[in-house]
Amino acid sequence: MRIAVCDDEERFLEDIKNRIYTIYNSLDVIVDCYDNGRNLLKNFEKQPYELVFLDIEMPEMDGITLAKKLRELSRELNIVFLTGHVEYALQGYEVNALRYLTKPVRADKLLEVLRYVSDKLIKKRVIKVRLDGEDRFIDVNDILYFEAQNQYIMIYTLVGDFLVRYNISDFENELSKDGFFRTHRSYLVSLGKVKKIGKAEVVMEGEKAVPVSRGNIKNLKEALYAYIEKSAF
């Protein structure tokens, strides 16, 4: 889990960082500290965090403004505000804040937040791809379908499209248990995003049509019915 803490008090940054590492001393957790929002935003664009702790009262850019900018970059980000002023709570609803913690942060409240986000990430299924020299994590639930384009794969998702240099068979093997079906040699679709099956195509969410090989129609229908039956329980 990648965690960022942004606060203009150096002593507080070191304290909360050490406390998080004490709780997760044996897990794959990275904690980065920032004394201003601009540096956090710059690094977030390169490699997003799953959880950020933001002090509301900071010079140059306050925590609310920073949270709004971060929310524009990620709708999945867990934002926790650090403040002693209850009146800021209403503004937090605008950025879908997870929690408000008062300073100094109580150990039990910090543990509650970390456990909640950790459990949430465990349940979340993602794939990791290499994009523009960086590791990028894509939520499987957001994926509509994959399309092979020569030596590249276009991943169509609910939050944007990503062109990566992979083999479509790699994704087929990785996602075989996640409800994905190879409709065509060049297409791999999410059964959960199929809206309609035609004679030679399937219509996905967003009304995008994906071709289906003639010999795959029967198998596609069987796979879709099995997926629907499994998802009903």
Brief account:
The chain has 7 helices and 15 strands. By secondary structure, it is α/β, with parallel strands linked by helices.
Fold blueprint:
Layout: E1 2-6, H1 10-23, E2 30-34, H2 37-46, E3 51-55, H3 63-73, E4 78-82, H4 89-92, E5 99-101, H5 107-123, E6 126-131, E7 134-139, E8 143-149, E9 152-157, E10 160-164, H6 168-174, E11 180-184, E12 187-190, E13 194-197, E14 201-204, E15 209-211, H7 217-231
Parallel strand pairs: 1-2, 1-3, 3-4, 4-5
Antiparallel strand pairs: 6-7, 8-9, 8-12, 9-10, 11-12, 13-14, 14-15
Shape: elongated
Q: What fraction, in percent, of the residue positions are helical?
A: 25-40%
Order of helices and strands: EHEHEHEHEHEEEEEHEEEEEH
Which structural class fits the helix and strand makeup? alpha/beta
In CATH, the topology of the largest domain is named Rossmann fold
Regions with little confidence, pLDDT below 50 for 5+ residues = none
Largest sheet: 5 strands, parallel
Query: What is the C-level CATH assignment of the largest domain?
Result: Alpha Beta
CATH-wise, what's the superfamily of the largest domain? Response regulator
Radius of gyration: 21 Å
CATH architecture of the largest domain: 3-Layer(aba) Sandwich
Binned strand content: 25-35%
Please report the number of helical segments: 7
**End-to-end span in angstroms?**
30 Å
Strand arrangement in the largest pleated sheet: 2-1-3-4-5
Average pLDDT, rounded to a whole number, is 88
| Count of discrete structural domains | 2
